[in-house]
Amino acid sequence: MFPRLVQFGMLTIPTQGAFIALGLMLALLLAVRTSRLLALNADAVWNFSFLAIFSFIVGGRVVLFATHWREYASYPYLMLAISTHSPAVMAGGFCIAFAACAVSLWLRPLPVRRVLDALAPPLTLGYGLACVGAFASGADYGSVTTVPWAVRFHSRYALMWNGTPQDVPLHPVQLYQAAFELLLCGFLLFLLKRNHRDGEICGAWLFLGGISHFVFEFWRGERGPELFSGLLDLTQLLALLMIAAGGILYLDRKRPTAQVNQTHAV
């Protein structure tokens, strides 16, 4: 595939990083539209979203530097890499982002469930584009298969950066996930334009997204740490928690119905 999008001498712009950046920009723009649709302060939602993204990246880099400080001291430019698939880095990013968002909501309160409803479609769109970038770079590659639509990678950069098997038929699981995420984004936007209760859109996102992560994990080439004697892995356990949380949010009928602002329909 195409792990490198552009090469300027020693400077390389990875395709996956470019798709992640594109996904973040489009997600932020969509968040402005969805926040207006739900009668939220678009500037406040933009600032909240940008804070979450920035703190997630910073948190991940803190963990990276703490665990690989010798390498980054020798090659500081590696800190500019956009993506990584280390569970520790992901956990560090989420913890820092959660803390920053909690402080932000304490200083400037927002209706949390409604904000989550507004952010669910943008998050899905951004993740879908990130999956396309992962496919182009060979990251998060699928398991070996004999299906007619199997893909084969022949890039030494994919092997070097992601450990992608070369000339082996693999499930294009990244494209499976990308197609699902983009369809889910459209479905969530459809629900968003209808009268609903605060938290229902986020609940639908967590429930359906959890199912997709649980199922697609079976087709991953490299799965997370196995749990319960190999019955499932860590990613699937988190997916089950997403499904449970989404079901609770979606089925809670004690909240008032949110009125949609039709003048800002997406």
Q: Can you walk through the features of this model?
A:
The mean pLDDT is 83. A hairpin with a 4-residue loop joins strand 4 (226-227) and strand 5 (232-233). The chain starts with a strand and ends in an 8-residue tail after the last strand. The strands form three sheets. The protein has a two-stranded antiparallel ribbon. The protein has a two-stranded antiparallel ribbon with strand order 3-6. It is globular. The chain has nine helices and six strands; from the N terminus they run ββαααααααβαββαβ. It is mainly alpha-helical and 266 residues long.
Structural class: mainly alpha
Beta strand count = 6
Tell me the major beta sheet.
2 strands, antiparallel
Terminal-residue CA separation? 34 Å
List the helices and strands and how they pair.
Blueprint lengths: L3 E5 L2 E4 H23 L4 H26 L1 H6 L12 H21 L4 H26 L18 H7 L10 H20 L3 E2 L2 H17 L9 E2 L4 E2 H18 L5 E2 L8
Antiparallel strand pairs: 1-2, 3-6, 4-5
Helix pairs in contact: 1-2, 1-5, 2-4, 5-7, 5-8, 7-8, 8-9
What attributes does this structure have?
266 residues; two-stranded antiparallel sheet; mainly alpha; two-stranded antiparallel ribbon
How would you briefly describe this protein structure?
With 266 residues, the chain is mainly alpha-helical. It contains 9 helices and 6 strands.
